[in-house]
Design goal:
The complex is a heterotrimer. Chain A is of the alpha+beta class. In chain A, 47% of the residues lie in helices and 27% in strands. In chain A, 47% of the residues are buried. Helix content of chain C is 24%, strand content 25%. In chain C, strand 5 and strand 6 form a beta hairpin. The chains are: A alpha+beta, B alpha+beta, C alpha/beta.
Chain lengths: 149, 356, 182
């Protein structure tokens, strides 16, 4: 029942960044959502974000961020969890459901194809766009001849 | 200090708050300001409120700014109050700023650092001329996009570190102290100092940092590197037993590199001050790094002579929520205190024979 | 894994109010609802745990109740420690922190699951919150409970607070109350 850890980390990371509306649409347009029981939440809380002194030294507490979590259990008996940034309870519940479905061999392939992969693609595009803007501000140094004489 | 219970102001308070709400809205003929507009268009204010409110949530920070009519300390206060209502689910693994998705990165000490320098969306090199075109809602042209070449961007101390000429980071897995759970006490470790500075008032830290440059605890700083961008935040929920990525925060990190004469046990080398803040807050990150370094004076065997080197002075006065609370409490009724002072002064004057 | 409160906000608030009431009126028996406890806990004990615990309230769990540990950890996140304790029979109270004179609030609150709060041995309670001495019947405490309790009561303002749970009912014995055999 346990999916390989790294695979699950990947899809949970994609789900954590999903837009609520898009996630709902992608999950629903595939097939009717299966029945599930909410085990916990969705509930809002905090995570203390830590940094390291100097970037690589001892840890310190930088400040908190809002987090919403939810856990659900599907009829097939798969338990899904979500911990996502922010305060969107609907998104946390959908993400927990998607996590449960991704562990269900009968559902995983379809969810991967219709939900996870498109979301991941969209997130990669968004990151690439900002990286491209940053790259455009990269400084090309040249040393002026007159300065050297 | 004594407070005296006063009754009878309820109606006045209600009326004052009603008027405040009206004032906040301003002229109804002007469209209301949306929270999304604040979040999108007053990003630097949002960042500052998140940093000083010590809570990363851009939408809540924008709401707080709206509610506080742009009073950023009041807005940070609102965020601090809000966070006390929420349970803490977890603490993150220390974020890896080396893996930041960089939007800005500059170094004042290495021109050609690996990965290059990127200016990002900066006010540097602007002319500080008021832009009257902003009076009208003119469309903004899309800026250029270049091809991003994935490239390692090591932190500057990691580049210099190999020579032993700069002090290295000493990794540690010790559980850090937490000011939100245990009140400040002294001597305060660097973990607690950094937490206090990260949530400290930008203006206060700027003044303190500036004072060190002007000679009050001079530490000869260079901006080794400043970087800003998104980092992923990971937590490890017990029910999973492994770390998961829960989202991204924008951080600004500053590595100050300072000259150090050496001591009996340590040869001359460069030491470092560190700044890390929520959001794009370069001024704050730089000031924090300056002050972090001066607060290490005792640890490095330097004389503690200046205010910015005095840990108690800096940490007790850097928090603007505490500061505003204590300063502003002076406007609350002190009728009894003042009566007793009045009697005292009258008595002293009478004893000295001062004519009434 | 089974859910916690049916309505987490309303049910935990109602349970908190109930705990306040029984702490304020020692020996009064009240009931809780909205929860199905995992074995071997009774509903009232489970409700009290979900209401009082979170990530920052360390819990000592009776080894006999080990089966409920995953459920408690999942719903509360409580770390190991002894600000609170959950026991299926009265543990040795002297093993738990009783607080200090400066900080009496740092003592442990122990939740003990008993057989009944309506039948069993009769105890006479006196102290703050009781206009007149009250009599409460409890089945499932040790025979010498009254003398054990009086040693704890004598520590006041230090001392352990007890919450007793049976089925869906609970009552409390704060350190300030005196207990004798009735």
């Amino acid at each position: 029942m346990d999916a390989p850890r790294s695979a699950r980390q990947r899809w949970m990371s994609v789900l954590a960044r999903a837009d609520t509306g898009v996630l709902r649409r992608l999950l629903n347009q595939r097939a009717p959502l299966p029945a599930y029981t909410v085990l916990r939440g969705p509930e809002g809380g905090l995570a203390m974000v830590r940094g390291r002194a100097g970037g690589g030294g001892a840890a310190f507490n930088l400040g908190e961020m809002t987090v919403t979590r939810c856990s659900v259990s599907t009829e097939a008996g798969f338990v899904g969890h979500a911990y996502i940034q922010g305060r969107d309870t609907a998104r946390a519940e959908l993400a927990a459901l998607a996590d449960a479905l991704m562990q269900d061999p009968l559902q995983a392939e379809s969810i991967e194809k219709h939900v996870i992969a498109p979301l991941e693609h969209q997130q990669a595009l968004k990151r690439a766009e900002r990286a491209g803007k940053a790259a455009a501000t990269k400084v090309q140094f040249f040393t002026m001849r007159t300065m050297r004489t | 200090m004594a407070y005296v219970a006063v009754k009878g102001g309820e109606r006045a308070i209600d009326a004052a708050h009603d008027w405040l709400a009206e004032e906040r809205r301003g002229d109804p003929a002007v469209p209301p300001l949306g929270v999304a507009q604040i979040q999108q268009q007053l990003g630097r204010a949002v960042n500052r409120v998140m940093a000083e409110g010590s809570l990363y949530d851009p939408q809540l920070a924008a709401l707080a700014i709206k509610q506080a009519q742009g009073d950023l300390i009041e807005a940070a206060f609102l965020l601090r109050a809000y966070r006390t209502t929420l349970p803490r689910f977890a603490h993150s693994k220390p974020v890896d700023t080396g893996a930041m998705r960089i939007e800005r990165r500059i170094s004042a000490i290495f021109k050609d650092l690996p990965g290059g320098q990127m200016l990002g969306p900066t006010y540097d090199y602007t002319h500080r001329l008021l832009d009257f075109s902003l009076l009208d809602d003119e469309a903004v042209a899309q800026g250029p996009v270049a091809e991003a070449v994935p490239e390692a961007m090591p932190r500057v101390p990691d580049i210099l570190g190999h020579e032993g000429i700069i002090e290295p980071d000493v990794p540690s897995e010790q559980e850090p102290g937490d000011l939100t759970r245990e009140p400040l006490s002294f001597p305060a470790g660097r973990d607690v100092r950094l937490q206090a500075l990260a949530r400290g008032d930008e203006g206060f830290l700027l003044g303190m940092g500036y004072s060190t440059q002007r000679g009050y605890g001079g530490s000869h700083p260079f901006a080794g590197e400043i970087r800003m961008g998104e980092v992923s935040v990971e937590i490890e929920p017990a029910e999973l037993g492994f770390a998961i990525d829960i989202g991204d925060v924008v951080l600004t990190e500053c590595q100050m590199v300072n000259q150090f004469q050496g001591s009996k046990t340590v040869p001359p080398r460069f030491t470092r001050g560190y700044g890390l803040v929520f959001g794009f807050g370069e001024r704050k990150a730089m000031a924090m790094a300056l002050v972090d370094r001066t607060l290490r004076a005792e640890e490095l065997g330097e004389d503690v002579t200046a205010p910015a080197q005095n840990v108690e002075f800096v940490l007790y006065h850097s928090d603007n929520i505490e500061a505003t609370g204590f300063v502003e409490h002076l406007k609350l009724p002190h009728y009894v205190d003042f009566q007793s002072e009045l009697q005292n002064v009258r008595k002293m004057r009478a004893e000295r024979g001062t004519p009434e | 894994m089974t859910p916690g409160f049916a309505d987490p906000v309303a049910d935990s608030q109602a349970c908190f109010r109930t705990i306040l009431d029984v702490m304020a009126r020692p020996g009064h028996v009240r009931s809780v609802s909205g929860i199905t406890a995992p074995a071997p806990l009774c509903d009232a004990a489970a409700a009290v745990l979900l209401t009082l615990l979170d990530h920052e309230t360390p819990l000592w769990l009776d080894p006999e109740a080990e089966a409920a540990r995953p459920w408690i950890a999942f719903h509360t996140g409580a770390p190991h420690g002894a600000s609170f304790a959950m026991a299926l029979s009265l543990p040795d109270l002297t093993r738990f922190p009783a607080g200090t004179d400066e900080m009496p609030e740092t003592s442990a609150t122990i939740i003990v699951q008993v057989a009944s709060l309506t039948a069993g041995r009769a105890y006479r309670l006196e102290g703050p919150g009781l206009r007149q001495p009250a009599v409460v019947r409890i089945a499932g405490l040790p025979d010498d409970f009254a003398s054990i309790w009086q040693r704890n009561h004598a520590l006041f303002p230090r001392g352990i607070d007890l919450i007793l749970c049976a089925g869906n009912t609970l009552t409390a014995l704060p350190r300030s109350v005196s207990v004798t055999k009735a």
